[in-house]
Amino acid sequence: MNVPHDNQASRHRLKIGTLELEGRLIMAPMAGITNLPFRLMVKRLGAAMVTTEMISAAGLCRGNRRSLEYLKNNRAERPLAAQIFGARPDEMAVAAQMALEAGADVIDINMGCPVKKVTRTGAGAALLKNLREISRLVTSVRLSCNAPLTAKIRAGWSPGYPPFREIARVLQDCGIDAITIHSRSAVQGYSTPADWSVIREVKQEVAVPVIGNGDVFRPAQGIRMMEVTGCDGIMVGRGAVGNPWIFRQILSLEMGQEPREPELQERRALIMEHFSLLADTMGEHRAALSMRGLLIWYSKALPNSSVFRGLVTKIRDLGSLRDAMDRYFSSLEGCRP
Asked: Average pLDDT, stretch 309-337?
């Protein structure tokens, strides 16, 4: 599926260091979601750049098999950002080099993950507590990285601590080429509405591109974020899970067109493609287990989705997936999603 572009849409570009993206919509890194199959699909549906799942710098340095697998990529998904996390500047510098050698076009430093198993090591959002540690780590990676370098942060560790404007200035001073800011603090997790004024203030504070993130679940929210914050691009995360078409829909709004929902057959075809791509990378059984959770998201906007959820638990291979899909989608004929 090719996403149409006109002259107006083609002007909406985002430049990160030496890399110019053909658009300003980015797929956020999400554990268990933004693997190679999903990235290929959202790229085709209009994402200007996709991002790997969060990758442990320590795991890469130790040659951990799973960490290395996260670096697998395909030319069709480029440009690709590899997001790495860690607390040791030396490991992060080596991990950045490894990611570039594996084919990444951009290195993204995770400073926003609030999960305890990450923050208790001093990585992720824990870095936000200490401006000096941010400076040491980013400077180390910058010296080893000759590609565009970005950082994904939150609005401080807790509201007002430390001031997110200071964090943004430190990142810029250390050579970061763009900043993505999720507009909640780390301790807030996802429990409160995103405060987009944080994005606007960071945009006013620094000269590097600022990418907004947080609570873009519908196409109009993406446009609205750019209008009220002045951000240079937007990163879509949870809003694309179950609705990877959101990128195409936001692009339609940018071009002054009404965004359309996928038809039932298009939705079904993409689900089957998703399974096929997963099976190619992890085997049919693991793909089936992975699809169980994804199918709940894919069917969330559809009628009688509770019926489908009952069928999902029985999916174990391609045949059982096809049977469940046939039964459910046949029942939806004549219905609109």
From this structure: 82
